[in-house]
Amino acid sequence: MIVVSNRLPWMVRRDRAGVPRLVAGSGGLVSAMAPVLAARGGTWIGGADFCGQDAQLAAELCAAGRRAGYELRPLFLDEQERRGFYHGFSNEVLWPLFHDLTSLCRFEPSYWQAYCVVNRRFAAEVGQAATPGDLVWVHDYQLMLVGAGLRDMGIAGPLAFFLHIPFPPPDIFMKLPWRRELLDALLAYDLLGFQAPRDRRNFTDCVRDLLPEVKISGRGEHFVRLRTGSRELRAGRFPIGIDYNDFYRRAAAPGVVREAAAMRRLLHDRQLVLGVDRLDYTKGIPERLQAFGLALERHPELREKVTLVQVVVPSREDIPRYRELKARIENLVGSINGRFTRPGGWVPIHYVFRNLAPDDLLSYYRAAQIALITPLKDGMNLVAKEYCAASPDEDCVLVLSEFAGAAAAMAGAALLVNPHDVTAVADAIATACAMPASERRARMRRLRRGVRRHDVFWWVDAFVRAAIAPSGRPSGEVAGMPGALPPPRRRRRGPGEGNEGAPLIR
Predict the structure, then answer these.
(1) Cα–Cα distance list, 20 to 13, 14, 15, 197, 367 (Å)
(2) If you placed Cys at 194, which of 113, 200, 256, 450 could pair as Cys (CB 3.0 to 4.6 Å)?
(3) Residue 482: predicted pLDDT
């Protein structure tokens, strides 16, 4: 397998002395793919976030790959390429457009040119690494043109692409000046994977409207087939999972358990509502803060009984819009705390702006009785799944945006909300706080079972088996759907994975 992504699973950070050091990356893609490549072997091709002239770092990167069990191949971009390709087209065009925020898009022609150039460079790097029979799996919106570049080089496949973010509906996608070029490039793959039914549906609707010569067949839960000329490809939905057993084990560590208990004592056993997000305008953090303030206003019984801990992980702070978002969040936290803080130590919102160590994040998950995950739009949102996996007591509630991809599988057990409706979110917070323990446990048990069944390994197995299947209908469906593909190998049960209906003690 050759995995291709915008970034490698290792980053450069400077220590207190200013010396650059390699550190393991984080995020959904790294969490999903690193253990898979470590188990299967292969190559990861990605952009390096340091200068190619640093021979020592480059050597350390190669050594890190060998220790992990697979090859790392860095692609070095100069500052101009990075600015046009990543900061420009990827994050000022595709990111807001695919999240339905067209007012934030900058359709700058030079951005598109940089995007094409860098995607061709990635394709050339893959071409050097690939041998006949390799599965090339390209990830996410930054690299949608790589498959077309590989076809131009004469590589016959198999080529697969997975989109981790949402795909927009036609009325939004039509605003992209290079809409036909992008769709044509996606049709170069053999398999296209999307997170949720809406994303696959939006993609096929865009193809119908813009490329009427493409023949589309298949409906409902099955893969959709698209025929263009003599080629046929398939598009399916593959909801990504997490490494459930890994979260299960680490959340049970004595240090995590002690820290979670200490956190609850510091809050005087008030109900802890937790939000965890990267700094981004798609995450709905200001709207969430407004909803929490409104909950305290509409439901006075919550005052001094509940505390919101909002964790914001720094991201893209060099972009002015993100700095403005950070300032808005800080102003809202100050305003709500100024209105409702009471003598005796109760502060409604505890605001944490920093990267958290993995054990610290797990401690927050275990301590929180309520997770408030309300993105305006999200491809999946793995935080929702991580929270469930790290909540062994099951006396907790997940409040989830209906616009997160995770909502498709979690409806009925989570409390789904419209993040734009701050009144409804405020009332959902009150409902979660007052929910009986028996109902909390029943709901969380269902959520945990689903997260455990459809973990990251199930996701990879389903996707890879579909990618290498011969032309025609695959032998089953993808994870989380009727007729789902069984995993080709059975994993041993993790600690606490008992009979259906039994509590899952992490």
Answers:
(1) 5, 4, 6, 43, 34
(2) 200
(3) 32
Which of 489, 484, 462, 496 minimizes the C-alpha distance to 32?
A: 462
> Is the predicted pLDDT of residue 37 greater than 80, yes or no?
yes
SS (H, E, C) 432-451: HHHCCHHHHHHHHHHHHHHH
Of residues 61 and 353, the one with the higher pLDDT is 353
pLDDT band at 122 (very low <50, low <70, confident <90, very high): very high
| Whether residue 205 lies in the annotated active site | no
Helix (H) or strand (E) holding 293: helix 285-298
CA distance 264 to 129: 51
What is the DSSP annotation of 224-279? EEEEETTEEEEEEE------HHHHHHHHTSHHHHHHHHHHHHHTTTPEEEEEEEES
How many other C-beta atoms lie within 10 A of the C-beta of residue 271? 20
HSE-CB for 312 with a 13 A CA cutoff: 28
How far is 100 from 88, CA to CA, in rounded Å? 17
Beta bridge partners of 235: 192, 224
Mark 74-95 as b/e (b = at least 16 C-beta within 10 Å): bbbbeeebbebbbebbbbbbbb
Q: Give the whole-angstrom CA distance, residue 253 versus residue 365.
A: 13
What pLDDT digit, counting tens, does each position of 456-499 carry?
889 988 999 999 876 544 433 433 333 333 333 334 344 333 33
- Which of the following is catalytic: 243, 277, 280, 378? 378
Say if CB 370 and CB 429 are below 8 A apart.
yes
CA distance 322 to 288: 17
Please list, in sequence order, all residues whose beta carbon lies within 8 angstroms of the beta carbon of residue 19, skipping any fewer than 6 positions away: none
Q: Residue 469, SS3?
A: coil
Q: What is the mean pLDDT of residues 79-96?
A: 94
In whole angstroms, what is the distance from residue 29 CA to residue 3 CA?
11
Active site residue 378: yes
How far is the C-alpha of 76 from the C-alpha of 84, rounded, in Å? 14
Residue 333 near residue 285, CB atoms below 8 Å: no
Instruction: Specify the residue for token string 């899952």.
Output: 504
* Per-residue pLDDT at 54 exceeds 70: no
Structural domains of the chain, with CATH? 2-80+115-237 (3.40.50.2000), 246-453 (3.40.50.2000)
Q: Between these two residues, 31 and 166, which has the higher pLDDT value?
A: 166
| DSSP H stretches of helix in 341-421 | 358-367, 382-389, 407-410
Q: What is the CA radius of gyration of the chain?
A: 23
Structure tokens, 277? 């997000």
